[in-house]
Amino acid sequence: MTANEPKPKRTTPSLLRKAGTARRLARSGTGERAAGGAQCRYVAVIMDGNGRWARRRHLPVAAGHRAGAKALRRLIEHALDCDIAEITVYSFSSENWRRPAAEVEDLMELFVEQIESEVPEVQGRGVRVRFVGRRSGVSAALLARIDAAEAANPDDPRMTMYIAFNYGGRDEIVDAARALLSTVAGRAGGAAVGGPPFAIDELVTEDALRGCLYAPEMHDPELLIRTSGEERISNFLLWQLAYTELYFSAKLWPDFGPGDLDDALSAYAARARRFGGR
Ligand code: IPE
Ligand code: IPE
Ligand code: MG
């Protein structure tokens, strides 16, 4: 939460979990409460602050990333309890390659470990795992593990966790534009040799571009949480965050616990979303 944001009225998580209560909250008061109901189902998280957490303890930065991985595991359990349907977590940005080689190496090692140990566990708890991001630049060994992990997803998931890895919001839009333009170019070529004419306005639409994103089925997050006190997007989900509610927590990511998620969900429930209307 931002320092200058008034603390929202606390709604207990058990209250939030009850869909009936959520609907009543939506109907009461201004009628403009969050997203047609108090309950937030689609959450995105910028898990920031691992480095500072480690530095404050005079630990190597890798220890901060390990503590961050534990915090994520905790959060997933609580998200399941809170009936979150989709959670998208920023685990490694397209810009994070700029970090010292030793830190990048440690992070890649940690991802392999997490994919081998934690991912099967969360899948066992009913979580579908999808990786979003560019494949280029990622080692073949890690890509093979990513593919194997996605192939082991539960058939009837309770929640989807999107892991943004080697992810950049601008990359995603560029990649979507490339994919879309290749279909448009195909149609243009067809028209040039006597095929049916095509209208670019009909082919290049918001829906068509969305359909070319890394995970077109992903819902736009209703709430974005960023920890560590930084208040920026850092190239995360640029397309999807167009109307997302933003929530900034001063906690460093490894310290962010279930109660902090409850606070964020309560803050969301108190927001008025208008989407440009009244
Ligand atoms: C987020 O924590 C983890 C990654 C970016 C991989 P940081 O490592 O950015 O933590 P700070 O911002 O240096 O404290
Ligand atoms: C964003 O955090 C990326 C992840 C949390 C994975 P950064 O620490 O990389 O962002 P900046 O550099 O502070 O904007
Ligand atoms: Mg950071």
What does this entry show, briefly?
By secondary structure, the chain is α/β, with parallel strands linked by helices.
Give an account of the 3D structure.
- The protein has 278 residues and is α/β, with parallel strands linked by helices.
- It has 2 domains: 184 residues, Decaprenyl diphosphate synthase-like (Undecaprenyl pyrophosphate synthetase, 3-Layer(aba) Sandwich); 50 residues, no CATH class.
- The protein is built from 10 helices and 6 strands; from the N terminus they run ααβααβαβαβαααββα.
- The protein has a 6-stranded parallel sheet with strand order 3-4-2-1-5-6, with helices on both faces.
- α6 links the parallel β3 and β4.
- The longest helix has 24 residues.
- It is globular and about 70 Å long.
- It starts with 12 loop residues before the first helix and ends in a 9-residue tail after the last helix.
- The N terminus is likely disordered.
Keywords:
10 helices; 13% strand; Undecaprenyl pyrophosphate synthetase; disordered N terminus; 278 residues; binds magnesium ion; alpha/beta; 2 domains; binds 3-methylbut-3-enyl trihydrogen diphosphate
